[in-house]
Amino acid sequence: MSPPENRLFTIGKDLLGIILLLIFLILFLNFDRLNDSEMLNDIPSAWVNVNTIFLSIVIEAIPFILLGVFVSAIIQIYISEDTIQRYLPSNVYASLFPAAVLGAIFPLCECAIVPVVRRLIKKGMPLHVGVVFLVAAPILNPIVALSTFFAFRTDLTILYSRMGLAFFLSIIIGAIIYIVMKNEKGSVLRSTKSADDHHHHHHHHQPSGFTGRMRQMSYHAVDEFFMMGKYLILGAFIAALFQTFLDRATLMAIGGNDFTAPIVMMAFAYLLSLCSEADAFVASSFSNQFTSGSLVAFLVYGPMLDLKNTFMLFAFFKTRFVLVFMITVTIVVFIAVLLLQMFLL
């Protein structure tokens, strides 16, 4: 896109985010008034139910998004890629485990992790190590663990399964990418200059001192909050529509099947493109209709691969790598969930 078109696209996305957040605030602030109002008599009960489910999901998730964006902003300003790379071993397979551990330390959502991994690879990080970090970081961090705990506090096997699978599968996915792509000639990165380069350049020329850093941190946090918030609100609304209008018998038939339920929830996770700090609350709203294994599939697959980070992957990486990555993640997660359902859930 040319710069003017890019600016218009960015303004449009920001405007959509502001509109969605305003709709949420209006509904939230007037919820009690609406309940007492005779206006509800003219609204079909199904839409009242949609409003109730939608608000409950968003209200539970917003504190974790706020926590996530501020921690992410601190990392963006105070921790460099060189610091992360310094602690990784040079051996191919020995580096996979520490990369997964690093993913457990840094709370970066799937929106932010793609440009970060691209920068790391440009600075010399091996591709397979970057892939481990790419799929592990959005799930394996304290904020996501905390939000999953609160969303599934009555069934902590979901939390343990999500974290355990994410850790081991990130290592497996990294190893598979190394085996498939090790003979690939040339870099898998696209050579075109992107908005991310400008963003990275901007942060390296930020004002020095505590005040300048705090200002940049607040800018970063606000940008991420609006970006994550609009996806959360859209996802919560679609989830509420699904649960209200989809035929219960159909929902139970799909959700109760150990084979089809994970496929449906993985597709749902891909299309909704929810932030990993908030997706557990959307998943928990389906806990009465879908199997535990399919909920784990939703919670593991979505942060690793969704619609919005697919666009980012194609923008930053060459097509062959992106296709190999998408196929690998999809097959590995699906097989792992089937095995999990057979032996543990």
UniProtKB/TrEMBL annotation:
Q: How does the UniProt record describe the way this protein sits in the membrane?
A: Multi-pass membrane protein
Q: List the subcellular locations.
A: Cell membrane
PANTHER family linked: UPF0718 PROTEIN YCGR
Task: Please report the name of this protein according to its UniProt entry.
Answer: Permease
Family note: Belongs to the UPF0718 family.
**InterPro entries of this UniProt entry?**
DUF318 (IPR005524), UPF0718 (IPR052923)
- Keywords recorded for this protein, A-Z: Cell membrane, Membrane, Transmembrane, Transmembrane helix
GO cellular-component term (any): plasma membrane
Q: What is its main location?
A: membrane
- Annotated stretches, region: Disordered: 192-211
Q: Which residues cross the membrane?
A: 15-31, 52-79, 91-117, 129-152, 158-181, 225-245, 251-273, 321-344
